[in-house]
Amino acid sequence: MTAPSADADADDVGLLSAILTLILPSGGDPAGLARAMLTRFGTAGAVFAADADELSAVVEGRIQVVVTLPLLREAAIRLMRTRIRQGNLLASHDALMAYLQAVLARDTLEQFRVLFLDRNARLIADEVLAQGTIDQTPVYPREVMRRAIRLKASELILVHNHPGWNPMPSREDIAMTRRLEQIATVLGLTVRDHVIVGNGGATSFRQAGLL
């Protein structure tokens, strides 16, 4: 990871410094530690999502930091989840993408999850249905549809991540999406989108014209 630029990351340094000032004993160097974390991970968001072992190495084992930052990340994710539950999810694309990137962008294993929506595109549930290796996750259409029927969902948003690389869909991703879309149609369900999340952002099949 390259060192952060002075202008773009001033706010990140300030945010992390303020948090570190609250959780570390007096007499330390919160700003210096914040800059070290940003040099290693790049952004404040990446710091919050960092692996505990990697984070511990950068902060030299300061347990307060290693414990507190993941808790703050989880609190932020729960806040975003609450917000996307409050209305039509399809009309809140930016909020949805921000939520999915917060949840998945730094995961080291590939996972497949589904957002189940009612007929008004309100979120019923967000569930992980499969988790695999660093570059492959088995997807079982029967399990997806069974869960949708049990939850009385009308619409689905498929989501998976590409750990450590770009979020562009592969041929396999496109084929799998079309298969799920066909099965869903037979059952009276609608696949509204498939979002792929990577370290470089996220790709929406709907916005890319693939659905």
From TrEMBL:
Residues covered by the MPN domain: 89-211
Gene Ontology molecular function: metal ion binding; metallopeptidase activity
Keywords: Hydrolase, Metal-binding, Metalloprotease, Protease, Zinc
Family matches, as SUPFAM superfamilies: JAB1/MPN domain (SSF102712)
Transmembrane segments annotated in the record for this chain: none
Gene3D superfamilies with a match to the protein in the record: Cytidine Deaminase, domain 2
Pfam hit, one: RadC
Record-level GO BP terms: proteolysis
UniProt similarity note: Belongs to the UPF0758 family.
Entry protein name: DNA repair protein RadC
Organism of origin: Gluconacetobacter liquefaciens
Gene this protein is translated from: radC
